[in-house]
Hints:
Elements: H1 8-31, H2 39-55, E1 79-81, E2 91-92, H3 95-109, E3 116-122, E4 125-132, E5 135-141, E6 147-149, H4 152-155, E7 190-198, H5 200-212, H6 221-229, H7 234-238, E8 242-249, H8 260-270, E9 278-281, H9 284-297, E10 305-312, H10 315-321, E11 331-335, E12 340-352, E13 357-369, E14 372-378, H11 382-388, E15 395-401, E16 405-411, E17 436-437, E18 445-447, H12 453-463, H13 476-484
Parallel strand pairs: 2-11
Antiparallel strand pairs: 1-6, 3-9, 3-10, 4-5, 4-7, 7-8, 10-11, 12-13, 12-15, 13-14, 13-18, 15-16, 17-18
Amino acid sequence: MPDVPNDRDAAAVRATALRREIDRxxxxxxxxxxxxxxxAAYDALMAxxxxxxxxxxxxxxxxxxxxxxxxxxxxxxxxxxxxQRMYSLDNAMDMGELDAWFERLAKDVGERACTFVAEYKIDxxxxxxxxxxxxxxxxxxxxxxxxxxxxxxxxxTVRSVPLALRDEALPGPAAGMLFDEPAAGAWRAVEVRxxxxxxxxxxxxxxxxxEEAGGTPFANPRNAAAGSLRQKDPAATASRDLSAFVYQVAxxxxxxxxxxxxxxxxxxxxxxxxxPDVATCxxxxxxxxxxxRALERRHExxxxxxxxxxxxxxxxxxxxxxxxAKAPRWAIAFKFPxxxxxxxxxxxxxxxxxxxxxxxxxxxxxxxxxxxxVGKATLHNADEVARKGLRIGDTVIVRKAGDVxxxxxxxxxxxxxxxxxxxRMPEACPACGSPAWRPPDEAVTRCSNVAxxxxxxxxxxxxxxxxxxxIEGLGDEILGRLEERGLVADxxxxx
Length: 495
């Protein structure tokens, strides 16, 4: 256990230094993706701070990194009225509609120079963060744009959301002072806006956990992020590994900011995670080129984007252009087209998870979708197979849900030739032959044998995964070999 100063004043000085150091390393890791210390070193700093705060509870501050998770579960989310409306954006569904927007804009702008800022459109949940005295006061969902829900305890668990703004962003003569000094009072209330999202690996992991528990998987990362923000228990939100990109200040003029590009720079200085894939474009042609590049490399990203947001850079020009009843005239969202393909459903097989859940999946004739070859797709449960009317041998439409997880949308019925076969859930576990059963209140069918080798394998795989032992290099295949040789049969065998 870390040593704790006996003297309260010495403990206060050390706690302040630790918070500052942990905040710096968190910023480097979560906002800049450039960590300087190992996870073990970071954990040691956090352990020391927790020890000091446990010994001197009056030293705990709201923005302490130890306070990200700790609020009790909530039964309801209080309504929050936004100081300024959170508008939605008009969409351009193809390059033709984007060009039409540029033409309308040109008529309003005339001969004046007009630059644009192009940013990736993150497939997540919009959020408004309010800071007072430089410290996070409140986090609210977008809601209907006028009124959202207070999700502050849950957003505090998102590590890329700073609990306190960094002193580098303080305006005017207060810049450079520290929050622990009176300079914190130099901060006015600041509201910033952004997007909370799940990375592709986190989304896949969450859906696998949902299915394993007999729940319904999320249709896309956006729904998953929104659902994660509305968990009654902040610890549940924390377990889902949410991230955030911030892109807007509600009242940028109060900070002396003149345009979107300046705003993004200020947000970075303040400690927020800002998407690095942003371009200042001098012309419509530059914007079109950025959109095309984004479309080509979207599958290389570890998070999901569904388009590009284009904004007039100048706030003075934005003010002049104004708003329609529902959207700004100075911004538009260029939406990517959905990627769907047809292929043949060769078979429906069943996998067995660590809790015995028997999940049907489609074996497909391999087809290229959204940057990768798809040969399998989950079908979730027997009810889902029946609802979609799938038969073995069907020609089916396949897409990637949120361009991440392969999904069978349904059959192309007019291509049936009579050779297609109905499918039914097996009455016995395909791994061990034990009877299968379906609890009356669940959609999932389960293997009744707790000693089933498939369940054991999946439990061991889960035990070694990220979030548990996190054994690097130990995957499905190597674990299977260890089991075959009798070297591993229980989590205790890893110790």
